[in-house]
From TrEMBL:
Signal sequence interval, chain numbering: 1-22
Name of the protein this chain belongs to: Uncharacterized protein
Keyword Signal found: yes
Keywords, sorted A to Z: Signal
Length: 250
């Protein structure tokens, strides 16, 4: 993590510059809003909701333009400017992808934005909640791919169990982080705590069901169970970000 963006009132920049930079709460709040809009684009893409995807992308672009202007006012280093330029490119790419590209292209742009925004995001001295959610999703994609491999050509059953456990660990670590962290990005964890907690419990139960089937070593139903976990993950994510559609209110 570059010092420019750590959660300190005053942060030392490059030694040669001898300057101090204040990372203001307003900038952090705006970054939360931006990441929330990108999560909404992700959910809308996964649930085939193009109207919401376009609206959230437009909001994300506005958030980013405001945030970039605020960052540029404090004379970022060349390395930091490079991060800003990369985000500029991926934001434009996201807008074009949402308008014209298939879902996997949109997801690719969102992944790149998440990785680059991680260099701007204030840190808590622990795993960031969003990093764990993205890590869970990536790992579950792998579990789902294995689950669809009826001949188990990709790896051994024990390795399959390890792949599941890695995904489960990401989810458990996320659950252990108090809702106050990343509250601007996942506001439903505080303001709609009952709905979000119920959605989290459904996902946890779906994972437990998958684990029981895994222990039985019966590959037949695993693809269906893996798909159910993924569905519950996006229901949880929708509740956590207070997604503006019916998927968040089931």
């Amino acid at each position: 993590m570059m010092p420019f963006f750590k959660t300190l009132l005053l942060i030392a920049l490059a030694p040669a510059a001898g300057m101090l930079f204040s990372c203001s709460p307003d900038q952090q709040m705006d970054a939360d809003k931006l990441e929330r809009q990108l999560l909404i684009v992700w959910i809308a893409t996964e649930t085939d909701d193009p109207t919401v995807a376009r609206a959230a992308t437009a909001a994300a672009l506005r958030n980013w333009n405001e945030l970039r202007t605020a960052y540029l006012r404090v004379s970022p280093t060349a390395q930091e400017r490079d991060v800003l330029r990369r985000i500029d490119l991926w934001m434009v790419g996201l807008r074009n992808a949402v308008d014209n590209a298939p879902a996997h292209r949109i997801i690719s742009h969102l992944n790149q934005l998440h990785n680059n925004l991680g260099e701007l995001r204030p840190q808590y001295g622990m795993d960031h909640p969003l990093d764990l959610l993205y890590a869970f999703s990536r790992q579950w994609d792998w579990v789902s791919e294995i689950s669809q491999d009826q001949m188990m050509c990709l790896l051994e059953w024990g390795e399959y169990a390890v792949a599941y456990q890695q995904a489960r660990n990401h989810w458990d670590r996320f659950q252990a982080i108090p809702p106050v962290y990343a509250a601007g990005t996942l506001p439903g964890r505080l303001s709609r705590s009952t709905t979000t907690e119920h959605a989290a419990l459904r996902l946890t139960n779906a994972l437990a069901d998958f684990e029981r089937q895994l222990a039985e070593a019966n590959h037949g139903p695993m693809a269906t169970s893996a798909a159910h976990v993924r569905t519950e993950f996006f229901h949880f994510l929708a509740a956590a970000v207070m997604y503006p559609a019916e998927v968040a209110a089931r």
